[in-house]
Design brief:
By secondary structure, this protein is of the alpha/beta class. It has 11 helices and 5 strands. The protein folds into 2 domains: about 5-15 and about 85-195, Rossmann fold (3-Layer(aba) Sandwich), CATH 3.40.50.1000; about 20-85.
Length: about 200
C-alpha cells in the first residue's frame, strides 16, 4: 500500500456473527430465537449507549414474561459478553493476515460496557491498536459525532480510514464523515478492499 491506512471493523455481524450468540442465549432461556430477538433488540440501543446491564437484561426478561432473578441476570450478561467477544476462526485469520501485512487495526462498535470489557480482555484484541465502543463515548453509530470521536482516538484524518460495517446507515454516515466505508461482505472481500487502498 502506498499510504498508511487504518482499517476499522465493526464487531457484531462483522468480526463476530450473531449465529454464535443468539442461539446460545435462546437455549439458556429455553425460548425460540425469534422470541428472544423480539425481546433482545428493542432495548439494546440504550444498553449500547451506556445503560446498566441489570436494566437491559431486566427489560429482556420482562419482554419474555420472565422474572429478572439476580443469578439469571448475571448469567445472561456473562454469556452475551463472552459470545460477542469470541472471534470465529475466519475473523481471527483476517486479523492475523492484516497484522502480518503491517495494517493498523481498530474497532468501532455499538457495544455495552460489559462487552467492551470482554473484548479488551480477549487475546485477539492485542492486535488492535484502538477499540472505540459506544458505551464509553455515550454515542451510537450512525450519529456523526461518533466518527469524529473515533478519529480523535485513532489519531487519524478521515481520509486515512477504511471502515467495514454490516449496517448501510452506519456506512453512509461514515462516508459522509469522509471515511472509505464499505458494507461488510466477508473476509476475502475485505482483504481485496484493503489491498486496493
Amino acid at each position: 500500500m502506498e499510504r498508511s491506512l487504518t482499517v476499522v471493523f465493526d464487531l457484531g455481524e462483522v468480526l463476530v456473527p450473531s449465529t454464535g450468540v443468539l442461539p446460545r442465549l435462546a437455549s439458556e432461556l429455553r425460548v425460540s430465537e425469534d422470541e428472544l430477538a423480539a425481546a433482545y433488540w428493542p432495548p439494546r440501543k440504550a444498553y449500547d449507549r451506556g445503560d446498566p446491564a441489570a436494566a437491559y437484561w431486566t427489560a429482556v426478561l420482562e419482554g419474555l414474561g420472565r422474572t429478572p432473578e439476580r443469578d439469571l441476570l448475571a448469567r445472561l450478561e456473562h454469556l452475551d459478553s463472552t459470545k460477542w467477544s469470541t472471534l470465529p476462526p475466519s475473523s481471527g485469520a483476517l486479523l492475523d493476515r492484516l497484522t502480518r501485512d503491517g495494517v493498523r487495526l481498530c474497532v468501532l462498535s455499538n457495544a455495552p460496557a460489559p462487552l467492551a470489557a470482554a473484548v479488551r480482555a480477549a487475546s485477539w484484541s492485542a492486535q488492535v491498536v484502538h477499540l472505540v465502543f459506544s458505551a464509553d463515548a455515550a454515542l451510537l453509530k450512525p450519529e456523526p459525532e461518533i466518527y469524529a470521536h473515533a478519529d480523535a482516538v485513532y489519531g487519524t484524518s478521515p481520509g486515512d480510514v477504511v471502515f467495514f460495517d454490516d449496517r448501510t446507515e452506519n456506512v453512509e454516515a461514515a462516508r459522509a464523515h469522509g471515511w472509505d466505508a464499505h458494507v461488510w461482505v466477508d473476509p476475502e472481500t475485505a482483504l481485496g478492499v484493503v489491498a486496493r487502498g
